Every structure is written in structure tokens, then in C-alpha cells.
Amino acid sequence: MNTPYQNNIAQYLTRRMKDNANWYHETGRIDDFVFNTADETIFCLIHFVISQLLHDGHTVLVLNRHDDINNTQNTAHDKLSPWQLSVLHPIMSLISDKVGDELDFNAIFGRIDELSNDKTALVHYIHHTQHDLKERYYQHSIITKSHSHQSDEQVVAQLGELMICALRFYYVTSITLGRDFDEFIKRLYANPFFAHGDDEKPDRAVVFYHDDDTLYLWLGRSYQAERELLSAIHEIRHSPIHALDLPINPSLNPEQQQAIRQVASEPFSIITGGPGTGKTFTVAQIVLALHHALSDVGGELSLALVAPTGKASQRMAESLQNALSGSQTNITLPEPMTIHRLLGIGMSGTPRYHASNPLPYELIIVDEASMLGTELARHLLCAVKRGARIILLGDAHQLSAVDAGAVLADLCRIPSLMTTRTHLVVSNRFSKDSGIGRLAQLINQPENIAFDKLIALIHQENHLSWTDIAFLTAQRSLLRQQFYKNIADEYMAPDGFFALTKTLKKQFATYGDDEKQTQLQALNERFNQYRILTASHIGSCGDELINGFIESLHRDYLKLPTVKSPWYHGRPVMILKNRYDLGLFNGDIGICLQSGKRSHELSVYFGDSVKGLPINMLDGDIATTAYAMTVHKSQGSEFEKVAVVFNDDNERLLSKELIYTAITRAKTKVAIYSTEQALLKAVNTPTIRQTGLLVHDDIKGGVN
Fold first, then answer.
1. Beta pairing partners, 542
2. A single GO CC term, please (predicted)?
3. 448 burial class (0-12, 13-18, 19+ CB within 10 angstroms)?
4. 435-565+627-683 under CATH 3.40.50.300, yes or no
5. Residue bearing the bigger pLDDT, 565 or 1
6. Longest dimension (CA), the chain
7. Which of 106, 419, 532, 651 has the fewest beta carbons under 10 Å from its own?
């Protein structure tokens, strides 16, 4: 089943309640444990739905008494109130997806209403529904020839249990509770596996909180993570610090000056801004000012530079060093780290540093904070020692974290934290008249964007283009190959990346270290002139197929012999996991070059370091080809030109944040290749993550 909880759903739904009952009873958390089938049904279904939402990036399930958002869905399920639909819709969609046909749940629920007073007939009907579901699944499986690592019997059993649970939930909430929102909330108060957010220790499996018209439900661990995150910010903000009279460079713009004043007087700061607005430059001025202030009193700046990914932390350190190079002060920056490494999070997932063993640093700078998920942000903020300063840097319009939560965007919306945020607006990369800048502004506007308006802007700009790729179908392989060749042309230009790798093929191994470094700088500069960005790994617009095709082009261009090995001279690669033992970080880009006399003597070079890594040290799933990469992987990078590729197959992944992030990776030129429908979907679909940080802020009265 295409769900993160696909294994043992049947066992989960039927045994979870009793397992939890025994555990809660044995640990003494429930003195008189009493539950009935209705309690079990509500708990199992709510827990399952929230778990699915968590996998999709949400931390909370929100149920509204009157939900206008779901009115379009509710026309197909008029037996359901809006809050019931919010619970059941994910289950109905999952089941319909597996049987390849949208089931008439409206009719099924109507039949349950009719049989509600005849328990025998009702049980018979439910068994009939299960059998019908089984038949539909097998028919769909034969037609689509779909494959799964699970047996058909397992999938059918799981779908059956899921269907029964959904029908029971409907019966309990519609027949027993009469679709009454208030009665449902009362039922949660009496359910032994639910705790209210106002409880002193809400330590049950599911935590809920409500106002007059809205009910919020969290898994216990998600509730605690958000609660502890805000509590940590509260403690940081209220810890005494030594206010500093920092010198301010008069050449800085007003927002940059305000950021320095903010950090001088407050322990917790947020600095946001789009590409080129000088976030890193501003932080460099803060580091300089703090360094001078502490040097005057005989102190030293204890600094940590971190980001969610290794590549992002490296780029921040490089940008900071460049920004500091023009000053007269000699500051040695510390080695950049991922947040996981900073906290000492190993394979167990437990951090070495935490509230009882805080980090030793006086200043922690966190770049690309938009990539922070709730759990990681909680661990980080809890580990900040009292009296230290922490600065979060990021662009709230960029893609959210892969993990659940949208921490930076949420913190920027919390009223009690408004005074901690400085937003930089003056872009040094994109002027007001810049095509990329204007397109980014258009995408970020809240109003719906008409296709004509979007295309008119693109056509006005020489450095923007859009190509309709509606022709790109699985049946038209020749057209697809021609398309791949077109987007690879930048690499194949007479002075392009392919040409330079050809020049270096026989010569690189003969150079001395100084010449190697010069050539590596030129090669990386050439490669970073252009990148292909995709929404997904898979499909005709995914980076896997595109990379595979360009690999063949590159091999043919260099006239390399056909071999089974994925390694060849000129292959650009991206590191997929942190390898501290090799000094490599997730997202690092390297280029494979012939490092000896023979063509199979290959090493991978990162940046301008002349110390190559033999390819046998990078086998397996450590590296992947990188002519094309996903937009997610491109965060924190910048290129002269980008090609952005997506189509209707990527519909579920498309959003304003995705296309904004993609186009703002480019300094000078953006070429968009998509269908009209996919482009409209992207620019008009904001990412909406249901999270609970603002709810916690209301519960606790603000993070003052």
C-alpha cells in the first residue's frame, strides 16, 4: 500500500488498543482503564490519520465545525459533516487509490444509516462491502499489473481492516453521536487515550485542544515537540545576557542595521529575506561587531556555524569568509557543521547535547532555517545554553523541511515573536527590473495568478522563457530524447562543461598541484554555470531519467568505452549522505576525473581541492549523478542559469514554494519546461502545512 504505515495495518488496527491498554495500565498512567468499541474505533482511526499527515509534513489534524475548505469535497459525501470528512477523506482516498476506482462512499454510508437498527443486517452488509473491496482490488491489480513488496493477500487484509475501521467511525460519529461536533469532543474527554492540551502532563497517545469551532489533534510526541520548542524559545528570550554596544557600519541599509541592534540586545533573533538580500553579509557584520566588542574586554567569540545540511553549512561558512575578507580584522571561522553533528545526534537519534547538557557556544548561527523540521528545531533550541545568542537565517518563501513542520514560517507568524524578526528586502542579486525578481514577486503574491499574466511577464524578459512540454509522453520516446538533448545543450556548448572535461581527460593527471587547483576552479565554475532542476526523481521529468540520458551523451562525446561501472571521466556527482570520515556532506558536488595514466584510474574532486577520493571509496548509495537534481536538493545553491522541468505527473509535488525556490537558484537566466496545467498548479498552490505552533502560542498566551 502506498502509505508510510503500509506494514501490518491489520495488526496495528486490531491490536494497538490492547497493547496501549496494557502499557498504560502497567505504567500506572490510567488507574481505572475502561474502554469500549467506540473508544477503540475513534482512537485507532484518529491515530492512523494523524500518522499519515505527519508523513506528509503536517504535525496536527485540524477539524472544523464549519469547514468551507472542504465544501467541494463534501458534495460527493453529503452524509458527512465537514469535521467527519476531514478525518475520513484520507482513508477514503487511500482505499480508492488502491482499487483504482472512487468508491461510492456516499451510498455506503447511506446504507449504514438504513441498517442502523438491524445489527445482523448491518454486519452482513459490512462483510459484503469487504468482499466487494477485495474483488475491486484484484481487478485493478490485474489491469495495472501493479507490483508491491507485499502479497496481494496482505494488502487486501489491510484494506479490509481499514474499511471496517472507517465504517465503524462513521457509525459511532453519525448514528451514536448524531454528527454532533460538541458530542464528539465530549467523547474525547472520556476516552482514556486522549489528553487535553490544558492538562498539566498531557502524556497520552493523542493530545487535543479546542475552541468553539475548531478541534486540534496531535500525536503525543508531536505535541510535546512543539510545546518544548516554544518553551525553549521563551527560556532563551528571558535569560539574562550582556547587552552590547555594537558598532554599526553606516553603509548598511536600515534593515541590516536593525538586525545588528536586535542581536546586540536580544538572545533570540530571526533574520529573513529573499536571495541576494544580504542575510549572510549582515551576519558577517554582526560577527565582526561582536568580535570587536568582546576583544575590547579581553574575551573571545565562541561561535558555531550550522545548517540542516552539510552543503548549506559549507556554503554559509564560505559566504561568511568572503564577506569578512574585506575587513581589516583577522577572524578564523570555526568548521561549519550540520545541526545533527552539532548536537551529537548519532544512529540512535538521541542528542548528546540537550537542556541538561547544553552546547558551549556563545553564538549559534543557523542558516537555511526554512529547512528545519519541528523535531530537529526542538532539539536545537533546547540545547542552547542560557545567556547565549542564537540567530535563525532563512527565506520563509522557500520549500519547507522534508521532516514534519514549517518552523521558520510559523515563528515568523507568531505575534509575540514579531519583535525578534528582521526582514531584509533590498536584493543585490535581483533589481526591481530583474525578470527573475519580478517573477519571484509575482509567484509570492497571495492572489490567484492568471496564465496570460504569467506568460506575458515571461515573454517580456529576455532572460525568462517557458516551453510547453505537453508532447512529453511515455509513448513518444523519440520526442522525449530530443527534449533531453535540448536541455543538455548548455553542457554541450563549444566552451561548455563537456568540452572542458574533454580537454582535461589526458592532461589532468600530468599537472602539478597548482595547475590542478587552477583547472578544478575553472571546471567547477563552468559546471555551476547551469543546472537542470526537477520536481521529482521519477517519471519523464525526473532527474533519474534525465541524468541517465545526459550520462550517455557525455560518454559518447568523450568517446569512452562502454562499461558497466557508473563511474567515468567527467561524471558530476552529488553526495547523498554525510561522511564525516571523508570530510563530505549531504549535497556536496564533486567531479570524477581521470587521475592516472589509465582510463579506469578515476578519482572524485570536490571544489578546488587537489586531494581526490578514489571512486572505490564512494561506491554504493553514497553518490549520484548530478547534471540534474531535485529542487529540494538545490536549496542553498546558486547557478548562472537553470532549467526547471516538471509536468502533470508531478502534480502532487507542485507548489509556489517549489517553483520560487527553483527560479531563485538562478542569477541571470531561467528556462521553464512544463505543461500549462502544471505551471498554473505550481504558481497558484501555496504549501499549507497544518502545524500547531501558533495553537501552542495561544494556549500558553504567547512566547513573551
1. none
2. exodeoxyribonuclease V complex
3. exposed
4. yes
5. 565
6. 88
7. 419
Q: CB neighbours (10 Å) of residue 224?
A: 15
Does 274 belong to an annotated binding site?
Answer: yes
Does 701 count as an annotated binding residue? no
The verdict on whether residue 273 carries a ligand-binding annotation is yes
Helices (H), 326-445: 339-343, 374-382, 407-413, 435-444
Global pTM value: 0.80
Residue range(s) in the chain whose domain bears CATH number 3.40.50.300: 243-429, 435-565+627-683
pLDDT in tens, 308-365: 877 778 778 888 888 777 666 777 788 888 888 899 887 677 889 999 999 999 899 9
- 411: Cβ–Cβ under 8 A, 6 or more apart, which residues? 233, 270, 392, 417, 421, 693
Question: Does 485 belong to an annotated binding site?
Answer: no
Query: Distance (Å, rounded) from C-alpha 16 to C-alpha 29?
Result: 17
> What is the residue type of 231?
S
Give the C-alpha separation, 436 to 664, whole Å.
7
Determine if residue 280 is labeled as part of a ligand binding site: yes
CA distance 409 to 686: 12
CB 246 within 8 A of CB 260: yes
Nearest to 174 by CA among 62, 52, 61, 41: 41
To the question of whether residue 277 is assigned a binding role by annotation, the answer is: yes
By the 10 Å C-beta count (0-12 exposed, 13-18 middle, 19+ buried), 555 is classed as: middle
Binding site annotation covers 120? no
